[in-house]
Amino acid sequence: MLRALRTPTLRNSSMRLMSTTAHPQPSIGRFTGKPDPNTGKFTVSFIEGDGIGPEISQAVKSIFKAADVPVQWETCDVTPLFINGLTTIPDKAVQSINKNLVALKGPLATPIGKGHRSLNLTLRKTFGLFANVRPAKSVAGFKTTYSDVDLVLIRENTEGEYSGIEHVVTPGVVQSIKLITRDASERVIRYAFEYARAIGRPRVVVVHKSTIQRLSDGLFVNVARELAKEYPDIIMEEQLLDNKVLNVVQNPASYTDAVSVCPNLYGDILSDLNSGLSAGSLGLTPSANIGNKISIFEAVHGSAPDIAGKNMANPTALLLSSCMMLNHMGLNQHADKIQDAVLSTIASSPENRTGDLGGSATTSSFTDAVISKL
Ligand SMILES: NC(=O)C1=CN([C@@H]2O[C@H](COP(=O)(O)OP(=O)(O)OC[C@H]3O[C@@H](n4cnc5c(N)ncnc54)[C@H](O)[C@@H]3O)[C@@H](O)[C@H]2O)C=CC1
Ligand SMILES: O=C(O)CCC(=O)C(=O)O
């Protein structure tokens, strides 16, 4: 059963644009932070990140200020430290996030094949952020192959191919271990069922390759089968990864009623595919890293070194991530206001779109245009 889709066009862009974030929140991972009783504001940790990070972070700060969002930022330095051969983040940043229970994060670059381990993975591990929610939705005013994409993908976020357990067996032979545990699989799959229920989607699609990865993906699928019995109102479907890729490229609308859930690497790749299908740019796709107590919100894209420092980056993905964050914190009206201003700016004219969307706007002129629509 597919929900009817309305596809906004430029002709009717004054109608309420499609929301890319969902208000109802699953009971797992609920935000329990409180505003400062003196200022009435919530404190949010902010990791600005590398490359385009500071530019898109400035856009969020300016827009939050103009929209009068009751949030004060606590800037966190996550310059990596090496302790006992392991990559860690500074105590001050850990304390800030533990205290505030919520953070917004710009992209963090990972050196290839040397230096520190990915700080993105380190943050996810440090704070037990077990589910990575990545919605990808068509936006009005920018034409891509499909105009009706509305995909929700939940990616396991702490293990799988990202466990970082690799070694040289003998010169020329390396081994990398894909770790799948019952606990982590159960946490993320349960979250997917709860998320589907919360946003009113009747299907959970479990993506795997257990024909080949028999034990690891096999365990993931078995856990899903067990949990499905606790959710008789949700249909659980199993789909092989390659088949899922084909289906989503051929007919993304067939997943409009579903939440997909998968092991870590599959989710990383599938979510970029979803971004490409929905928006044709990584610059539009937000995400939430959810843990039991703490959650960190970030764009799906990386630090974009090719355009860093050029005032060219599209801040939309970080802005929509900040809207997911506001929904998570119960500040729904502020989320709606910012999201509507962002999406109507994109829909309004090519002059208001950044280069990745074929427009001529800079990061700062886009920010000003959004502020004028608040
Ligand atoms: N969650 C995170 O912090 C992530 C960090 N990374 C890191 O980012 C670095 C660069 O990775 P890449 O593979 O090049 O991926 P990337 O996402 O940074 O860039 C891929 C392409 O998309 C474009 N792009 C990305 N974000 C954009 C935006 N907001 N506006 C306009 N265009 C945008 C870039 O210009 C580039 O052409 C690496 O060090 C990687 O480790 C990569 C992915 C996620
Ligand atoms: O940490 C990185 O370098 C890349 C991480 C990434 O692609 C992601 O999981 O979002």
UniProtKB/TrEMBL annotation:
| Cofactor annotation | Mn(2+); Mg(2+)
**A Pfam cross-reference name:** Iso_dh
What keywords sit in the KW lines?
Answer: Magnesium, Metal-binding, NAD, Oxidoreductase, Transit peptide
* EC number per UniProt: 1.1.1.41
List the InterPro entries.
Answer: IsoCit/isopropylmalate_DH_CS, Isocitrate_DH_NAD, IsoPropMal-DH-like_dom
Q: Quaternary form?
A: Octamer of two non-identical subunits IDH1 and IDH2.
Give the protein's recorded name.
Answer: Isocitrate dehydrogenase [NAD] subunit 2, mitochondrial
